[in-house]
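Field log, afternoon session.

UNIT: design team B
ACTIVITY: writing a sequence onto a fixed backbone
BACKBONE:
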């Protein structure tokens, strides 16, 4: 189902206090001290002010582009072709929101190495030497080749030259997957302690979708696992902000949200998580390969959404205090 469009491309930022501006100006990107397959690059980077200014955390798990040279001998396809597995340059979408006071966690490790939006157990045993499955069913995504360690894609075929060792997969989980999710938990706990509510926006990009019966295709898909990972007031607000920016929005189809929001979203405990899929044609060039002219606009829309969510949380706190 598409939400109606109302064109309103002018998005005005909310003014900030002097203290907020000073905190934003002095914040530095924080590389998380966990070894990646290339030890010179951290597996992910945390950015944002030391003291949280807004109750929002942005996660970008699929934009990693740190393809270490050693991968060339491990895969069947040219390293350049693996960009099709990425949410291409999605990390650039959150920079304005981050510099405006939100925190972000962006992966540097490529999705090929390990998929941060899959559970640790979401493994295709056929691709692992010495893997013992203890009764867990194989998910449809793993069977299709896109489990915790991507095995194949429809466009590229099989990705790995040979089966992987179970010890190698375990090391990827220990050094990349678990630290990423631990960092999300730490950040969300800090935001909830500071504001009483924390909101996770898990940012992804998608190829252009097929047009529906009405001749239109969604440009944004918001997933909340059908109401399980976030309060409807936050889901509806984000959807409306995209509509007000003139974009076509779908809810939960074809992307209802995956492991990250399932794991971290807990509305009953004051933590809300939304997955946001953004059509690559909105911010990449015509080849969907490099940043395009639409990138500044999408950045600004996301920043405006962060402002609106922050105001919504602040308004709730004020209303409760007044009771």
């Amino acid at each position: 189902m598409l939400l109606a469009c109302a064109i309103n491309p002018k998005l005005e930022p909310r003014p900030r206090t002097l203290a907020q501006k000073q905190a934003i100006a002095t914040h530095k990107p924080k590389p998380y001290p966990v070894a990646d397959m290339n030890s010179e690059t951290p597996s992910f980077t945390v950015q944002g002010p030391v003291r949280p200014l807004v109750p929002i955390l942005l996660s970008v798990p699929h934009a990693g582009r740190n393809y270490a040279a050693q991968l060339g001998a491990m895969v069947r396809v040219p390293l350049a072709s693996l960009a099709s597995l990425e949410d291409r340059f999605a990390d650039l979408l959150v920079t304005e929101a981050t510099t405006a006071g939100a925190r972000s966690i962006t992966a540097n490790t490529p999705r090929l190495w390990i998929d941060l939006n899959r559970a640790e157990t979401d493994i295709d045993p056929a691709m692992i030497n010495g893997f013992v499955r203890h009764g867990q069913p194989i998910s449809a995504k793993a069977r299709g080749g896109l489990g915790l360690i991507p095995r194949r894609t429809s466009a590229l075929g099989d990705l790995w030259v040979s089966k992987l060792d179970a010890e190698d997969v375990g090391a990827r989980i220990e050094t990349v997957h678990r630290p990423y999710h631990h960092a999300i938990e730490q950040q969300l706990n800090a935001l909830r302690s500071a504001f009483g509510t924390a909101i996770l926006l898990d940012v992804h990009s998608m190829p252009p979708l097929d047009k529906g019966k009405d001749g239109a295709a969604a440009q944004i898909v918001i997933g909340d696992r059908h109401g399980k990972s976030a309060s409807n007031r936050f889901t509806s607000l984000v959807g409306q902000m995209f509509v007000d920016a003139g974009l076509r929005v779908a809810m939960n189809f074809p992307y209802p949200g995956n492991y990250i929001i399932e794991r971290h979203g807990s509305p009953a405990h004051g933590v809300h998580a939304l997955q946001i899929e953004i059509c690559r044609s909105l911010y990449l060039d015509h080849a969907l390969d490099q940043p395009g002219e639409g990138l500044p606009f999408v950045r600004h829309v996301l920043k405006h959404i962060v402002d609106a969510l922050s105001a919504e949380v602040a308004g709730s706190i004020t209303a409760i205090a007044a009771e």
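LOG NOTE: DSSP finds seven helices and 13 strands in the chain.
NEXT ACTIVITY: expression trials, pending approval
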